[in-house]
Specification:
2-enoyl-CoA Hydratase, Chain A, domain 1, 4-stranded parallel β-sheet, 258 residues, Muramoyl-pentapeptide Carboxypeptidase, domain 1, 4-stranded antiparallel β-sheet, 8 strands, 33% helix, single chain, 2 domains
């Protein structure tokens, strides 16, 4: 959510309306947000000037309502927003406002829950102080800070939490215990090689799964986790997660739309 995001969104919305698109999908997964003004500029595209787009509450003061600044808006018959645990801040404001006021359905998992507004000041010595000065709320007054937005349709997806891209400096073997082994086991399981665990202990079953991966990818088949194994595994993971067929949330949404 940067300085030009709203302009880019509006260009897309214009082309959608010209093509008579009836269903709009916003993918805000893994979107950590950005400028609050960018979120409000985007919401201006969907709300009219008599509608609240968010509320803000500073310490020791009543909540203040903020309205859309224009009357021009885009309407779609159906609206969906893909969200996950990394959907935060300005992206949560956008998703929450569209969900509560425009009936957009959230598909995915509960969002991060960052409902605070921050600013910064430059001090006399040139250092910068960044601080939280208020909490924002979605239009109906709900504060999502620490709670997140609850999806209308909950769909779990492949989680990449715990997967490490750090170099494997020493080859890891059976009976080793290491966080890199834990990462390897998770990747093997995601890619369909059935390691027996994901706790970081290098078992014989983990070795067998690694050997199958090595054989399938023209690596040295020794069942020992090396830097070459890790690099290939990361590459295969990137291909996997960028394939829509492996995106459970996207796949579910496409079934709804069709």
């Amino acid at each position: 959510f940067g300085t030009d995001t709203a302009n880019q969104v509006e260009e897309a919305l214009k082309s959608f309306k010209q093509a008579n698109v009836q269903t709009l999908v916003l993918d805000l997964r893994d979107n950590g947000g950005g400028y609050l003004t960018a979120a409000t500029d985007i919401l201006d595209l969907f709300f009219s000037s008599d509608e609240v787009i968010y509320q803000m509450k500073e310490k020791n003061s009543a909540a203040k309502k903020y309205y859309a600044s224009t009357d021009s808006k885009y309407e779609f018959v159906n609206g969906y927003i893909l969200v996950n645990g990394n959907t935060a801040s300005a992206s949560e404001l956008t998703a929450g406002a569209l969900q509560s006021e425009k009936g957009y359905q959230l598909v995915g998992t509960t969002t991060y829950g960052k409902g605070s507004a921050q600013t910064q000041k430059t001090l006399s010595d040139g250092s910068v102080l960044k601080y939280t000065y208020a909490k924002w709320m979605i239009p109906n007054g709900t504060c999502i800070n620490g709670k997140g937005l609850t999806p209308d349709i909950e769909v779990e997806n492949v989680s990449l939490d715990g997967i490490s891209t750090k170099d494997v400096k020493e080859t890891l073997k059976v009976d080793c215990v290491n966080t890199r082994i834990k990462s390897m086991q998770k990747m093997l399981n995601i890619l369909g090689y059935s390691a027996d665990r994901e706790d970081g202990y290098f078992s014989v079953a983990t070795q067998d799964a690694l050997k199958k991966f090595e054989a399938d990818n023209d690596l040295t088949v020794d069942g020992e986790y090396s830097q070459n194994d890790k690099q290939m595994m990361i590459a295969r993971m990137m291909i996997y997660i960028n394939n829509h067929e492996n995106d459970k949330q996207y796949e579910y949404l496409m079934k709804i739309i069709k």
